[in-house]
Write a structure and sequence with these properties.
With 323 residues, this protein is an alpha/beta fold. It folds into two domains: 188 residues, FAD/NAD(P)-binding domain (3-Layer(bba) Sandwich); 104 residues, 3-Layer(bba) Sandwich (FAD/NAD(P)-binding domain), CATH 3.50.50. The chain is 24% helix and 28% strand. Strands 1, 2, 3, 4, 5, 6 and 17 form a seven-stranded mixed β-sheet that branches. It has a five-stranded parallel β-sheet with strand order 8-15-9-10-11. A hairpin with a 2-residue loop joins strand 4 and strand 5. Helix 1 packs parallel to helix 2 and helix 4 packs parallel to helix 5. The C terminus is likely disordered.
Length: 323
């Protein structure tokens, strides 16, 4: 492959993090490629974003579109709609292969692959997937007008799913295994003040049952004298699993949760490989924190490429090593 066909910076993942990194890479005039199966990431399924600086309120899709438009302002940045299925290091160059059979080469890589929804792992979950079991209120909540719904989870995301579902459902129950749900204070207040929502604490859903569609769940402790709980639909919001398989193939270290380990500059242990967003081992995962990590990665890639070019021209190798 000709030298000009090797990118400076290849971003795997076309969400907020990837687009922000691409925008900064464009400002650094890095020849950059963004590869993503679908644009936007999981945030496009968020109905309301109220915590991204500069925007008091917008949808997740609107936020992603703004970041994508900004990244596309830079002529050195290009985009490919495809899924990366393999990644490896070949000398000083990284190669990725897509589901479509294409191979792209780059001097540096950013892994911004995000996460996938975590499943309950109980009987009936797979059987009733899309037949009463769902993972996205914005996607499927409108199917349940005037119905009774359940949400499993106790996080801020679970609270927001329940609040959104009240736009359609006549009643929403939140099932949480802990003593008290723990959303952000503003959403905790909204939940407590919404007459359609009831929280059922210290309770797990242990089985999902129905006929053609879900009509009830089985709880691990009685509610109003029975472990059988009638429901028309169940929305699962118990977290996400990091999509870090490509990183592992490159020899990148992950923690016990399979999240990619990075330092404050988004570097991994493999020189030239960066990671950012929900796939990494930071405790606080938000669109704004992922964007910041992506920007750090773009700057790191710029320094790396610049120093490697200087070294190749006879200068001193000042390229930074990973953690």
């Amino acid at each position: 492959m000709a030298k000009e066909d090797i990118y400076d910076f290849l971003i795997i993942g076309a969400g907020c993090t990837g687009y922000a990194a691409a925008m900064y890479a464009g400002r650094f005039n890095l020849r950059t490629l963004v590869v993503g199966e679908t644009g936007g990431g999981t945030i496009i399924l968020t109905d309301t974003v109220e915590n991204y600086p500069g925007f008091r309120k917008l949808t997740g899709l609107e936020l992603v579109e703004k970041l994508e438009e900004h990244a596309k302002d830079y002529p050195s940045v290009s985009f490919e709609s495809d899924k990366v299925v393999d990644a490896r290091e070949n000398g000083s160059i990284f190669e990725v292969k897509t589901l479509g059979g294409r191979i792209f080469k780059s001097k540096t890589i950013l892994i911004a692959t995000g996460t996938e929804w975590r499943k309950l792992g109980v009987p009936g979950e797979n059987e009733y997937s899309s037949k009463g079991v769902h993972y996205c209120a914005l996607c499927d909540g409108a199917l349940y007008k005037d119905k009774i719904l359940g949400v499993v989870g106790g996080s801020d995301s679970a609270a927001k799913e329940a609040l959104l579902l009240t736009q359609w459902a006549k009643k929403v129950y939140i099932f949480y295994r802990g003593e008290k749900i723990h959303p952000e204070p503003v959403n905790a207040t909204r939940v407590s003040q919404n007459p359609k929502i009831e929280v059922v604490n210290l309770t797990n859903v242990k089985e999902i049952k129905g006929g053609k569609f879900v009509n009830r769940v089985i709880l691990d402790r009685p509610y109003n004298g029975s472990e059988e709980f009638p429901l028309d639909g169940l929305f699962v919001e118990i977290g996400h699993n990091p999509l870090s398989e490509l990183a592992v193939k490159l020899g990148v270290k992950v923690d016990e949760r399979k999240e990619i380990i990075i330092d404050r500059e988004s570097r991994t242990n493999v020189k030239g490989v960066y990671a950012a967003g929900d796939v990494v081992n930071t405790a606080f995962k938000q669109a704004i924190t992922g964007v910041a990590e992506g920007v750090h990665a773009a700057y790191g890639a710029y320094q790396y490429v610049t120093n490697e070019s200087a070294a190749a021209a006879g200068g001193e190798d000042g390229g930074k090593k990973g953690t």
